[in-house]
Write a structure and sequence with these properties.
With 415 residues, this protein is an alpha+beta fold. Helix content is 49%, strand content 13%. Helix 4 (68-79) packs across helix 7 (234-269), helix 7 runs antiparallel to helix 8 (281-310) and helix 7 packs parallel to helix 9. The structure holds flavin-adenine dinucleotide (FAD).
């Protein structure tokens, strides 16, 4: 599927990721869902051994030096093993490296990226606080300079890899009086500096990803671990919207795909009223609906990847594309999982088939890395800005007057 858009190298890359996904023992997945495995280190290590961690990291730093168009292919394949597999894999191998590649010094890149790509170092990203996640710039975690160090205090919650990761990308207030552009600093905090993992949540799904609360109690971080400059977290945060929103959208497709495959197979075998249930349009149309949604998601993801890779688009436009990808894909994939479950009848609601787990896992997709509501906020903002620009430039036909009574007296009243 979609091979017509792939180069031979991308097909090879896809097959490599697909083989890896096939090789994972089912017991490993069950143990993660049962919280017996806290964080899938072995899984990520094997992915690294197969050259699947650090896809876009330059070769010089131990990565593959590929592009988003390649990364989305492997993200989809790896997520077939469960949404949390791709979340942990994506956070350590795609999200955190993006920040280090974009804002890191040469020393920081050399120190962390090769280890991440070999899965000798596992990484996590810490934005959300008990106080809230959507209002990111209202963060209350603080860092105060003390000689050559910063003293970090505060808490972050729901951190994937909170249990299991070795380094944490932590955003903290260093200039509480400043605005969004100059109040926060991003730090690379090593676990050994004194990070405490205090609490593991009982999660509805997505278990086994080490999702935990982190406590920073007078943690001393050397100034060499400031990422991107003091009071200058904003550009890093802005850039991270790409892997966070777009990357997580790409993986959601892979997490939803098995639900549709399982339901399709079931409807070709299960009989009611003397025929297989795929002969009832009430069933087969749901499968068709889900197939359309999944393919539409892929179209959105593949074109957005091209937009990002091209480097030709304005950052604001990229921000809109990534945000709308996140909203559209995560909500469509949620529909795919539910349509699939519906086609299975009662057995879909049991653990005889993995669809109930897929539904539990996928519920996270519209919440984490920015909720659907926050995505809408961004999209409406960028869209209105674009439209105002168009109106200013008179760059397109204005269709408003293409109707009989366009100039009717006293009708176009706006106040
Ligand atoms: C399993 C799991 C894993 C996670 N992993 C990570 C991680 O690795 N790192 C990390 O930093 N975070 C992580 N998160 C946190 C996640 O990103 C946040 O939960 C999310 O951003 C929402 O923040 P919140 O929970 O504080 O909700 P709030 O910000 O309190 O929002 C609550 C509700 O209000 C709505 N809302 C808030 N503001 C507005 C507004 N302006 N307009 C309209 N609606 C609004 C939201 O959409 C939401 O529906 C994870 C969460 C979970 C559950």
């Amino acid at each position: 599927m979609y091979e017509f858009l792939m180069t031979p190298e991308q097909i090879e890359h896809r097959d490599n990721a697909r083989e890896f996904a096939k090789s994972i023992d089912r017991q490993y997945l069950l143990d993660m869902d049962a919280d017996k495995i806290k964080y899938p280190k072995e899984f990520i290590k094997e992915a690294a051994r197969r050259g699947l961690v650090g896809i876009r990291v330059p070769k010089k730093y131990g990565g593959r030096g590929m592009h988003w168009a390649d990364e989305v292919i492997s993200l989809e394949e790896i997520a077939v093993n469960g949404y949390i597999m791709s979340c942990t894999y994506g956070v350590t191998g795609c999200l955190v490296p993006e920040a280090i590649m974009f804002s890191g010094t040469e020393e920081q890149k050399m120190k962390y990226l090769p280890g991440i790509c070999k899965a000798e170092i596992f990484a996590a990203e810490c934005l959300t606080e008990p106080r809230g996640g959507s209002d990111f710039f209202g963060a209350t975690t603080t860092a105060v300079q003390d000689g050559d160090d910063f003293i970090l205090n505060g808490q972050k919650r729901f951190i994937v890899g909170g249990e299991g990761a070795d380094i944490f990308l932590v955003y903290a207030k260093t200039n509480p009086e400043g605005g969004p552009q100059n109040s926060m600093t991003c730090f690379i905090v090593e676990r050994d500096m004194g990070v405490k993992t205090e609490y593991q949540y009982g999660l509805m799904g997505c278990r086994g990803g080490g999702t935990a609360r982190l406590v920073f109690d007078n943690v001393r971080v050397p100034k060499e671990n400031v990422l991107g400059g003091v009071n200058n977290a904003y550009p890093t945060f802005y850039q991270m919207m790409i892997p966070e929103r777009f990357g997580t959208a790409a993986m959601t497709i892979g997490a939803a795909r098995p639900a549709l495959e399982i339901a399709t197979d079931y409807t070709m075998k299960r009989k009611a009223f003397g025929k297989t249930i795929n002969r009832f349009q009430g069933v087969s149309f749901k499968i068709a609906e889900a197939a359309i949604k999944l393919d539409a998601c892929r179209s959105v993801i593949y074109t957005t990847a091209q937009a990002v890779d091209s480097g030709k688009c304005e950052p604001e436009y990229v921000r809109r594309l990534c945000s709308q990808s996140k909203k559209f894909v995560t909500e469509s994939c949620w529909d795919v999982a539910n349509l699939s479950m519906q086609c299975m009848g009662g057995i879909g609601y049991t653990d005889v088939y993995p669809i109930e787990k897929i539904v539990r896992d996928l519920r996270l997709a519209t919440i984490w890395t920015g909720t659907s509501e926050i995505m809408l906020n961004i999209v409406q903002h960028e869209w209105y800005t674009e439209r105002r620009e168009e109106l200013k430039n008179l760059s397109k036909r204005n269709s408003e007057c293409d109707c009989i009574n366009a100039f009717a007296d006293g009708e176009k009243i706006y106040e």
